[in-house]
């Protein structure tokens, strides 16, 4: 393994990457690494644009963003974006990816060189990470970012001296505005990345030599510092085998290796040598000190009254966007899908055409309809994140969330859960504490997501009159808000409950840096939207289309010859009672549905759901929307349009015209309320269960969610129906 | 990082008045110290309390003369002990 970390020669296959792929096709690979808020994401977006892919790092659930950068000339390079971190000692799950990647030259992602983004206005702290990477012996380029902010603060940097001291190319830049990017591209294209002198910043103490020597020998490592990281982190390195870990465990015990004390000593030692270096490089001319603009803005945005008012106003705007503004594009999508189905059905006939229009195209419509809402939500979240406001939200909300066992960092995933639990649960990754993170993931699906909106709106409009209360408040709006509050309070109370059950696994930190306020970069916002919409369409979309097709089959075919028998019976009755042709057709279709597979399912579970006020038709909808809530409306419309004349208008009219055995309207307010409450609580989303499994790496959590939420839904609906009906 | 006098006698970052500055003396909690150190809160650094959340927790500390702001909980701030 010696010689693995060599000068950059991308044409030469590195171990683990050569072999299968032809040598000439392998692009040079570089990893972007830097502190949070050091402009790393901006740089990645500038380099790769729309040429990005989101995947997973092997074995873990951390997003792996890669892209291909055009470097000038015909040269290109593959760029891997690593999570932001302050040091190579990981404090969160995300950061562990870095260790797995950089300490294992056999990893398929192992970079040829690293580009380290540092904040020029905050050089001392930024160089801590760089110094660790340098001592690992990785060839590096330093992207000296945010030079504009540094200049504003009267900080002058001697780039030539910095380059000399660090031993790697230094490119001053402003990634947000694209300044210095051309220079960086040239430096990367010419592969000027240099391996910094070993042990330039800090060397492990002499007492560690025997231990490090043993590790180096055993694993064939190129330097002591890498060996030291093996000693610190072997428990978390995925690429080590069980024997390797046992070996390292006994070795560190034998030498009484104190990881915490060693890390503290190393960090202090590094700062000492960085301070020395900076004396040569930095001069600060103190102009008249003015309070920075960010601090003045903070006085307002984190004010005890205005802070919350402004946050509420922003939330209000966000809801307006999701509910009102998104309506226009959603209507367009809806009309487009209907027009397409109608056009196809007008020209062609037969079971395959019905499968296509009622199954596939209807399912596609169900996916596409959510794109406006998801795009708007992530536009908002991206702007809040980009401007630095999100950190202030965390600051404002932390004390309020803590009684429930959540932290200020849970607020963002919970709010995102209002759009869709899938990205929201993925967003919980930023929570370092295991316990806080699990609580947040567990309760996020209780927040009323946008997939519940169709169910809510259909049922609310069905039973709540479109009237105002006290002359101001729209009744339907009030009921809708009540459902959202019910979801929110159940999420918080569930967290409180789980908090007492769950034991913390590790130390949790709240501490974070407040980024300075900045105008958002619209390119970054745009790329976030594209990425999230793509993820939704590709991940949830597949499930929804598949379920839609399956549903059509279940509702159109039945076991054995029962459907035919039922149809024949209707025909006999028709002859005896002289029904009209239309009446016969309607009754036959209804009988066919009742004897279909879906109808059979509904009948089987009817005894279990009758105490909630539900019949077999609702039973069918519950079962099909178990895969995804938004399927409920589709199922209801399928059931009723299959059971009645083909185009009877909206689902609402169909539901309103449904009668019970006594000829009274079936959907009474109480029945609708029972159903609404069921949908507030029930875990009716396969995608959420799948993503929870991915994020927690254990079936315990998604199964727990399923049992808990379904139980809660059943109990709540039972209560509503038994008490009020 | 050992404190020369009884731990309780030292003021901590949580005892600062709004706008008051002081120098970090030592970090009391070894695990927390690792996180604070890598974020630039080293013994000898100046800290200034610039704000508290409306409910008194978390608080905002400006570090050194590089003017960057950390947000941390009271339970974390009390591990930062100050020089007299």
TrEMBL record, chain A:
Residues 27-194 form the FeoB-type G domain. The keyword Transmembrane helix applies. It is a multi-pass membrane protein. Keywords: Cell membrane, GTP-binding, Ion transport, Iron, Iron transport, Membrane, Nucleotide-binding, Transmembrane, Transmembrane helix, Transport. Pfam families: FeoB_C (PF07664), FeoB_N (PF02421), Gate (PF07670). It is found in: Cell inner membrane; Cell membrane. It comes from the Bacteria. SUPFAM superfamilies: P-loop containing nucleoside triphosphate hydrolases. Residues 1-20 are annotated as: Disordered. Coiled coil: none annotated. The chain crosses the membrane at residues 305-326, 360-384, 404-426, 438-465, 477-498, 536-555, 672-693, 705-724. Belongs to the TRAFAC class TrmE-Era-EngA-EngB-Septin-like GTPase superfamily. FeoB GTPase (TC 9.A.8) family. Probable transporter of a GTP-driven Fe(2+) uptake system. PANTHER family: FE(2+) TRANSPORTER FEOB (PTHR43185:SF1), FERROUS IRON TRANSPORT PROTEIN B (PTHR43185). This is Ferrous iron transport protein B. It comes from Hymenobacter ginsengisoli.
UniProtKB/TrEMBL annotation, chain B:
Residues 11-84 form the Ferrous iron transporter FeoA-like domain. It comes from the Bacteria. InterPro entries: Fe-transptr_FeoA-like (IPR007167), FeoA (IPR052713), FeoA_core_dom (IPR038157), Transcriptional_repressor_C (IPR008988). Keywords: Iron. The keyword Iron applies. PANTHER family: FE(2+) TRANSPORT PROTEIN A (PTHR42954:SF2). This is Ferrous iron transporter FeoA-like domain-containing protein. It comes from Hymenobacter ginsengisoli.
